[in-house]
Amino acid sequence: MRASAVRDTQAGRSLTLETSGGATPDGEAANPRFFDGFLTAPAAAATALLAVAGVAASRYYQPRPSAFLDPVVTAGGDRLRLESFSACCGVHARLDVLAPGLDGDDVGHGTTNVDIGPPLRLALARIGGLDPLHLRVGPDGLAATTFDGRFVEKKVPLPERWLRGFAEAQVIAAGLVPRAEIPAAEAAAVLRSLPRPTQRSGAHTTRWVVPSGRTLRPATRPSPGAVCLPGCERLLSLQQVLRHASTVRVYAPEPERSHDEWSWAQQDPTAPVAWEAVLPGMRLTLLLSPHASRGFSGEGGVLDDLATGPAARDTDRVAELLAWEPKIDVADLSAQSGLEPGRVRAALTVLGTSGQVGYDLAEEAYYHRHLPYAAGAAGTRNPRLRGAKALVAQGAVRIDGALAWVGKDEHAYLVRIEDGERMSCTCLWWARYRGGRGPCKHVLATRMVRNTKRESAR
């Protein structure tokens, strides 16, 4: 593996960014070549790449200087995907360069992580409207003929927190639906109205907007139908990109059906949101965690599936059927594996804990990426899951009908089982989050014991 550098060639000066190796349909390769060609909208692509790099270099909550981290690049046969998380792990950025945005050799298959450090960011910022941008992802790197200067980049290891972030982000994204589609100019006006981040603000501001035709109407408080913008300062990374965009789509959870203002006020209205900028031949998506004070890695959305025995067993069967396709079709996987669609989705969640699966909001489909981690690796590092397994191993779960006592003596908590599946707990975690950050360890332990009893009864 060579360092990234600007080199002189017969064709002129070019910038090459070396990869770190990756996986391909034919197995592991030391230096696979995924793509060699031009981007058809170079100025827009450079700006979008800078946005992805900027997210990786930012810490939105409790801002402070942070080391730059390298985006993950996936070649999916007909597109390139570049992904990053912010240093606080509360923002997931993904640039999808689709087939119309690429002009060159066929796109290969595989995943690697490359470094986009300050020198490369400066080079990207120099690309003008008439300058070509040539990418070569592989042993010869990424070349841009308009760049000058010489620099060397060091590869930064992929942080473990990103692994948990990938797992949670795909679960959260799969629960969002399209809520608005507005012209880029309207989106820019909304962003201009948001507060500017400061060293003290820490992205604490939460705003709401109400979709109204082809615009977003600001709201002073949460209400049914409103879309939450949690830590809204985090959306400002899109500002520079919008001058190249045609449309912006907003994704959020399904709107509340209840119009009872009192019942609405009793709920935590803070929710995740995704903004997707449609660029020439590309899409740039920013997914924000529900609370700026905590990243995706702590949301706990994968825990129910990780605690389910069948999901762990189904994972190997589903993994064998995953192909390097741009989209993963749940119905096709269900037919091929003989598993119900719900079990396929649960297995995909488990695969997501090793970074092998992501979710594309625009196409409402999962996609395949490969990272060098075993399935379930993030789950084994989750303290709630470890605590639940310890409780089960200690025999500290006693179930009597719709009630369960978890723990021993004065440390026992009561878990209530409603409608056969939904559970609540008397512990402090449940009182604080009401299931909003996934189940507590007592609910997880109860679910594990019930699943074991069901399987034994078969």
TrEMBL record:
Domain SWIM-type: 413-451
Polar residues: compositionally biased ranges: 11-22
Top-level taxon of origin: Bacteria
One Gene Ontology term of the molecular function aspect: zinc ion binding
Family matches, as InterPro entries: Znf_SWIM (IPR007527)
Keywords (A to Z) from UniProt: Metal-binding, Zinc, Zinc-finger
Entries under PROSITE patterns matching the protein: ZF_SWIM
Pfam families for the chain: SWIM
Region (Disordered): 1-27
The name this protein goes by in its record: SWIM-type domain-containing protein
Organism field: Streptomyces carminius
